[in-house]
Amino acid sequence: EQIVIGAGNEYLQLLLAQMLGKEHCVAMESPTYLRAYKTFRNIGFPVQEVALDESGMRVDLLRETDASIAYVMPSHQFPLGIVMPMKRRLELLNWAMEEPERYIIEDDYDSEFRYKGKPIPALQGYDNHGKVIYIGTFSKSIAPAIRVSYLVLPEKLLRCYKERGTVFSSTVSRVDQRIVAGFLKEGYYE
Fold it and tell me: Which H, E and C letters describe 69-82, residue by residue?
């Protein structure tokens, strides 16, 4: 797995479009994070909305779509705040494993904040088949002005990134990257 750095999730979504190609349909939770929805639509991806229940995106309804990518926020769904239980996370992973070109984008925008109960590990941590693209940010936990977001790519997509994505310069200054890396390395983030 490889980490790709960018200034904001929208930039990283643009990189993903370069890696994945635009033949994918994206399923998004309904309601969802409107900025991500609009970004995928503006890039040119067809987007289909999938209803939620108390456990998050309904996988039974996801199966009825043309989607090959599911965009979810399992740790703290925005705007409803739903925490997706393990059973639903595993159902989602099973959906992704049914077809070779299916992926899950796990937007883990604020998982470091836990308001009740024990944290549930990221969906990406249970992925043994290279199906989860993990996207996160330090904007909420460190400072909004720093604008450091990141993608953790499965091996197959890392190859695509090296072929198609490296032509784009990082939108985060190297100084800011080194500051955040030092902050993490020295244990201050914890």
Answer: EEEECCCCCCCCCC
Half-sphere exposure of 101 (CA within 13 A, CB side): 12
Contacts of 126 (CB under 8 A, 6+ apart): 89, 90, 93
What's the number of CA atoms in the CB half-sphere (13 Å) around residue 22? 9
Q: Which helix (H) or strand (E) holds 183?
A: helix 174-185
Structure tokens of 156?
């197959």
**Tokens describing residue 155:** 């091996």
Max alpha carbon distance in the chain (Å)? 47
Distance CA 60, CA 75 (A): 20
93: three-class secondary structure by DSSP? helix
pLDDT tens-digit profile of 104-140? 999 986 555 555 666 677 889 899 999 999 998 876 6
Q: Do the Cβ atoms of 6 and 39 come closer than 8 Å?
A: no
